[in-house]
Each structure stands twice: as structure tokens, then as C-alpha cells.
């Protein structure tokens, strides 16, 4: 039945020479809605599906892998044309991915990858978190030029892969520029409260903040908290202390508008767009995509009309 | 003579706090310096008082609950719920008094829910409050609709978190006032005694005429109110309600503060002053670790090691050993004295 549907759909699409795969049914197993970014990813995925006329079946796993596996099995039983999974953990996927493969349903991983043989899924669409750190570091290197610059760093949750990778990428970018030096680095757990508290201690420990030239925060929320700490210490964030962070959530654009932050690297919530494009090419032309599709890590600065970006992003459920 | 008694009873806590503060000053030479900036006191010591506000407030409620042989695991989640309520009320145009009243009412309701499960249905406190601990963050997320609900344009609510009064940050003023109120109420009336009686033996105190149900309901309600106050402060501090992270794991810090403060988890005798000092010890430790500049991987290990040392020093076994040493010394002194007498 599924193959018939698919054939019919493909034939129809080819006949009309429409660029998008028409009347596709795609199942999407989302992790949950633990963060604003996750909520935005869900709404962007729904928007992208709507734009292409794809019938999206959405399942929220509430942070549980067993719910995701159940959802994938039910997608297989319903005979969908493709399955998107944003996997909550990396392991334990082999069995259910094999079932999907036997049913000849292509699986695309979003945002995170899994520890399973590569032939069990079509492709993975993720961001390169090392590269995000590098983009942030490159911006700062360019911004300060030859001037000496002491950097304080707010790390993400200790041991988490985005924290490790965003640190690594940033370190790579500033390596070889002896005028840039990370003088303090501490975890802010990716939260505003801790970002603010840790920044307060950085300022106290570094001569009232006079030794600090720039702040690098592994996410925008910590940067937003730190900006408040900088202001309460009587300094001007964005001028006395440069602020660069990662994620591009709406609130950092408000800080741009107020002149209190200087740059952010976007972790795009649009993982589904490239995934649907790859799926389209695969179903229509049997074109196997690469096993890894890297999303763009776009750098935003206050020069990018922050008010407009804020208004666009605000509606996405961040 | 009230003050010297408190000092004598809280000697271990005073010594620990002093040692940690001195260590902090060694790590960061400017630790004790306090200056006026933007018309408010500014310095690391002020940070300790200010950042310690949520745990201090939670510890006040937690002390009373623990004194009745109970425990309240839900306080962190109640902080998240109340922060969400406060943020959504103020952003939908309510005035500050209405927002605060609404927030405190929700905290009170959460406390009464816990109290009802414990006092009326006789569910064990750890399980009864676990329900709200687990469900609370979900409730908070429903209120904020999964986003960090910000109120950057509401200076009146932000003032509660980062404003200042008499040059002191508002959170410090709030926790000191709440602490004084709580101490006066439980120690200037028989209430403290009745709470201790329930903790020692609920059945016996009920039989001797203590209305244990009402008192149990009341202590959980107070814990809810304290958590609500902490929740409003936490939200006002970052100008937004973060349902996922507000008050996360703070119930554990609050319980730890009570235990370091010398109140037993078995209920009975309690000390609010001890718990306040416990909260300050934990916060001084946190601030010291941040100032020290160790790699973050060591944060929790250092904290755990120091707390282990504090608990070992306070443990009944080492207290007994120390008492033994003291008694021996006295005995030796008396012996040598009597020998001198005999020699004469």
C-alpha cells in the first residue's frame, strides 16, 4: 500500500513536474519541549512541512527514548513515506532502525546523531558545535585586532557535548593570537541565573571588571544573565566588555537593539528544511545524500537589523 | 543573655563559616572589601548575602518542616511555579501588589496541598512532596508555555530582585525580615515547642492535646510561602521566569543548610539561626569556588569534600570523641590538682 502510494505520489509529482514531493506523509518523533530552542525547532519543522505540502505526523516523546521507539514503530505501521527522529540519546536505536529499513522507510536524524551503523539511516542533519565556537572566536579575533584582550568564558553544563565543542572551537579560533587570552572560565550551566552569578564573581575577581575585555558565553541565556551582572557592576556591556555568544535566541536580539551585546552565532532551528530537501532528492531522483548535512552557523551582529530578526523569531515559540 | 546562648550553641557553625570566609579572603584578596556603587553596597560579601537569598528562604521553611520529622522536596518546583505565575501576572498588566499577592497565594496553595497529603492523608512526607517536585516543573511550563517568560519592561517587579533599600540589595532585606519574623513567631510563642513535640512523637503530642494536624498543615504552608518568596526573587533577578531551571536542585541545598545548621532529620529540636548559618556556609562555599578560578570540573568535588569535612566534624561520633578528650583533660587537671593538694 505504502509503495503504491509512493509510486502514485511520485508519478503524480513527475507528471505535474512540481518541484516538491506532493502529498508525502512524514512522521516526526521529537524529543519533547525542554528548551525554547526545541519548541522553535518543532514549529519550524511544522512550517517547513506545510510549505511543501507534506502531511506531518508529530509525536512528542517527553524526553523518553521508549516513547520515541513506540512512535517510530507506529509510523512504520501507518506506512509513512519517511521518518524524522530527533534522538534523545545516542544508543539503543539499532533494532527500530532495522525495522524501518526492512519496511523501506528512509529515516533522517535531526539535530543529534546516533551510535548505529550508517546504512540504517538516510542522513543526519545537525549543526557543527565546534564550528559554532570557531565562528564566535573568529569574530572576536577580527573585532579586537591587535589590541590585547582578556576574555572570560561562561561554559555550558560541565561535560555536555555542546559545552566541550563550543569551547574547543573557540580555543582553536583564538590560538595563535597571543593578544587574546582566556583569563577565567567557569560553568554557568546554560542558565541565566548561573550566568549572572558567575559573571558577578568574574567581575569581582578581575579588579571590578576593568581587566575584562570580552565575554564568551556558550549560549545566549547565560550571556543575557551576564549582561545584567555587568550593568549592575556599573559597566557598559557591549562597550566596556564585548559580549559574544551562541544560539541566536530572540532575547539576545533585544540586547543587540539596546547595544548591550555584540555578536551571536545561530544554532538554526531549521533542521527540517535541509532534511526535506534531501528526502525530496532521494525519493524523486534516488539521489543518496551525504551521511551528514551540516546546517549553517550564521553570525549575527547588531548590524543585521536585530529588531526585525527579533520579531521574526519571537513567533517561533522560543 | 540570649545572644551568648546562641553563640555557644552555634559554635561549630560559626567556626566553619569563619574558616570558609577566611579561605575566601586568601583566595581572593578583595573578598572583605565593600564599597558603595550605584548607591548600594557592592562586594563579594554582599554577593554571598544576596545570592544566598533563595536557599536561605527555603531553609527557613524547611527547618520547620524537618522539625516535625517531615521533609519538603517540592520547594524548588514551587519556586518555578511561582516565578511563572508572577511573570505571567505582571506581563498581563496586573499591578505589583496584585502580582505579589497572586504569587504568594499560589505558593500557599502548593504548601497546603503538601500539608494536606501529610497531615490529613498520612502520606509519608518524602513521597507526598515528591509528587509536586515532579509535577511542579510541568505546571510551571504550562504557565509559561515552554518559553522563558521575560518582563524586561516591568521595573517594579525587577526591583524585588535587583533593587536596593538602605543600600542593601532587596533579596537580602527580604530574607532578613522573613527570618526575624519566623524566629519571633516560633520562639516568642509556644509554637516552636509544639512543632518540636510533633517531631519527637506525633501520637504522644496529639494525645496530650496538641492539634498536630493544623500545625503540620501550617508548617508546610509556611514552607510553600517561603518557596514562593524565593521564586519571586529568582524570577525578578533575571527579569524572567525560567520554568526549567528556576530553583533546580535548591531543595537539596536547603535540606543541607538545615542539616549543617544542626537540626536533625529525625525531627524535634531545631534552630532557625543554625539553618541561616548553614545557608550562608553553602553560599560562601559557592562564591569561593567561583572566585578561586579552578576548572569547573572541580566545582562539585570541592564542594562535596568540604561539606563532608563539616559533617564529619559535626557527627555524633566525633562530637562524642571531642567531649571525651575534653573530659579527660578535665580529669587530668583535677587529678594533678588533687596530687598537688596531697603533696602539700
Write up what this structure looks like:
The complex is a heterodimer of chains A (318) and B (344). In chain A, 45% of the residues lie in helices and 18% in strands. Chain A is elongated and about 65 Å long. Chain A is built from 11 helices and 12 strands. The model of chain A is unreliable at 9-21 (pLDDT under 50). By secondary structure, chain A is of the alpha/beta class. Chain A folds into 2 domains: 2-126 and 269-287, Rossmann fold (3-Layer(aba) Sandwich); 129-266, Rossmann fold. In chain A, helix 7 (192-205) crosses helix 8 (220-232) and helix 9 (250-257) packs antiparallel against helix 11. Chain B is 74% helix and 4% strand. Chain B is mainly alpha-helical. Chain B has helices spanning 2-9, 11-27, 44-51, 53-67, 75-91, 96-120, 125-144, 155-162, 170-187, 191-200, 202-207, 212-238, 250-260, 272-292, 299-314, 316-343; strands at residues 35-37, 40-42, 149-150, 164-165, 168-169, 240-241. Chain B is globular and about 90 Å long. Chain B folds into 2 domains: 43-293, Orthogonal Bundle (ABC transporter involved in vitamin B12 uptake, BtuC), CATH 1.10.3470; 300-344. The mean pLDDT of chain B is 92. In chain B, helix 6 runs antiparallel to helix 12 (212-238).
Please give a quick description of this structure:
The complex is a heterodimer of chains A (318) and B (344). Chain A has 318 residues and is α/β, with parallel strands linked by helices. Chain A has helices at 2-16, 36-51, 65-78, 94-102, 129-144, 161-174, 192-205, 220-232, 250-257, 272-285, 306-314, and strands at residues 25-30, 55-60, 82-85, 107-110, 123-126, 149-155, 180-187, 214-217, 242-247, 263-266, 292-294, 299-300.
Amino acid at each position: 500500500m505504502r509503495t503504491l502510494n509512493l509510486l502514485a505520489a511520485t508519478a503524480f509529482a513527475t507528471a505535474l513536474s512540481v518541484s516538491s514531493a506532493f502529498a508525502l506523509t512524514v512522521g516526526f518523533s521529537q524529543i519533547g519541549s525542554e528548551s525554547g530552542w526545541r519548541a522553535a525547532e518543532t514549529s519550524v519543522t511544522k512550517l517547513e512541512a506545510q510549505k511543501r505540502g507534506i502531511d506531518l505526523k508529530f509525536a512528542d516523546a517527553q524526553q523518553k527514548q521508549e516513547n520515541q521507539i513506540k512512535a517510530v514503530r507506529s509510523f512504520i505501521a501507518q506506512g509513512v513515506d519517511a521518518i524524522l527522529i530527533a534522538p534523545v540519546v545516542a544508543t539503543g536505536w539499532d533494532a527500530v532502525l532495522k525495522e524501518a529499513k526492512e519496511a523501506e522507510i528512509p529515516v533522517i536524524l535531526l539535530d543529534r546523531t546516533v551510535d548505529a551503523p550508517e546504512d540504517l539511516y538516510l542522513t543526519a542533519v545537525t549543526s557543527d558545535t565546534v564550528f559554532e565556537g570557531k565562528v564566535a572566536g573568529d569574530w572576536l579575533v577580527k573585532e579586537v585586532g591587535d589590541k590585547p584582550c582578556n576574555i572570560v568564558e561562561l561554559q555550558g553544563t560541565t561535560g555536555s557535548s555542546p559545552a566541550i565543542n563550543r569551547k574547543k572551537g573557540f580555543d582553536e579560533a583564538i590560538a595563535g593570537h597571543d593578544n587574546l587570552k582566556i583569563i577565567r572560565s567557569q560553568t554557568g550551566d546554560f542558565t541565566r541565573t548561573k550566568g549572572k552569578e558567575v559573571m558577578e564573581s568574574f567581575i569581582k575577581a578581575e579588579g571590578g571588571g576593568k581587566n575584562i575585555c570580552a565575554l564568551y558565553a556558550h549560549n545566549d541565556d547565560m550571556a543575557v544573565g551576564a549582561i545584567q551582572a555587568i550593568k549592575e557592576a556599573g559597566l557598559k556591556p557591549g562597550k566596556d566588555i564585548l559580549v559574544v555568544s551562541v544560539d541566536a535566541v530572540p532575547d539576545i536580539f533585544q540586547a543587540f537593539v539596546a547595544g548591550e551585546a555584540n555578536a551571536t552565532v545561530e544554532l538554526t532551528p531549521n533542521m527540517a528544511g535541509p532534511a526535506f530537501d534531501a528526502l525530496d532528492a532521494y525519493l524523486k531522483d534516488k539521489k543518496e545524500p551525504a551521511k551528514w548535512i551540516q546546517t549553517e552557523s550564521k553570525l549575527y551582529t547588531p548590524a543585521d537589523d536585530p529588531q526585525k530578526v527579533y520579531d521574526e523569531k519571537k513567533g517561533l515559540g522560543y | 543573655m540570649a545572644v551568648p546562648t546562641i553563640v555557644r550553641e552555634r559554635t561549630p557553625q560559626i567556626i566553619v563559616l569563619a574558616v570558609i570566609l577566611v579561605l575566601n579572603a586568601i583566595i581572593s584578596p578583595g573578598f572583605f572589601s565593600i564599597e558603595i556603587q550605584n548607591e548600594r553596597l557592592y562586594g563579594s560579601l554582599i554577593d554571598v548575602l544576596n545570592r544566598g537569598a533563595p536557599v536561605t528562604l527555603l531553609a527557613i521553611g524547611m527547618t520547620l518542616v524537618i522539625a516535625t520529622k517531615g521533609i519538603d522536596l517540592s520547594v524548588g518546583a514551587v519556586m518555578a511555579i511561582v516565578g511563572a505565575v508572577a511573570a505571567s501576572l505582571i506581563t498581563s498588566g496586573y499591578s505589583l501588589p496584585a502580582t505579589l499577592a497572586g504569587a504568594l497565594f499560589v505558593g500557599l496553595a502548593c504548601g497546603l496541598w503538601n500539608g494536606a497529603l501529610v497531615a490529613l492523608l498520612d502520606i509519608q512526607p518524602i513521597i507526598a512532596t515528591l509528587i509536586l517536585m515532579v509535577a511542579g516543573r510541568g505546571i510551571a511550563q504550562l504557565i509559561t508555555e515552554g518559553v522563558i517568560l521575560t518582563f524586561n519592561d516591568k521595573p517594579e517587579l525587577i526591583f524585588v530582585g535587583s533593587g536596593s533599600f538602605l543600600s542593601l540589595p532587596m533579596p537580602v532585606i527580604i530574607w532578613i525580615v522573613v527570618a526575624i519574623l519566623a524566629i519571633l513567631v516560633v520562639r516568642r510563642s509556644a509554637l516552636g515547642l509544639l512543632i518540636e513535640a510533633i517531631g519527637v512523637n506525633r501520637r504522644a503530642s496529639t494525645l496530650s492535646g496538641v492539634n498536630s494536624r493544623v500545625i503540620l498543615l501550617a508548617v508546610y504552608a509556611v514552607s510553600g510561602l517561603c518557596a514562593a518568596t524565593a521564586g519571586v526573587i529568582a524570577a525578578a533577578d533575571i527579569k524572567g521566569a525560567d520554568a526549567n531551571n528556576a530553583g533546580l536542585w535548591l531543595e537539596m541545598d536547603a535540606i543541607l543548610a538545615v542539616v549543617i545548621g544542626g537540626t536533625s532529620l529525625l525531627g524535634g529540636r531545631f534552630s532557625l539561626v543554625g539553618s541561616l548559618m548553614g545557608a550562608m556556609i553553602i553560599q560562601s562555599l559557592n562564591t569561593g569556588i567561583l572566585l578561586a578560578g579552578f576548572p569547573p570540573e572541580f566545582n562539585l568535588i570541592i564542594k562535596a569534600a568540604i561539606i563532608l569535612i563539616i559533617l564529619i566534624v559535626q557527627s555524633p561520633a566525633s562530637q562524642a570523641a571531642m567531649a571525651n578528650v575534653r573530659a579527660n583533660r578535665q580529669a587530668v587537671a583535677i587529678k594533678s590538682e588533687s596530687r598537688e593538694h596531697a603533696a602539700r
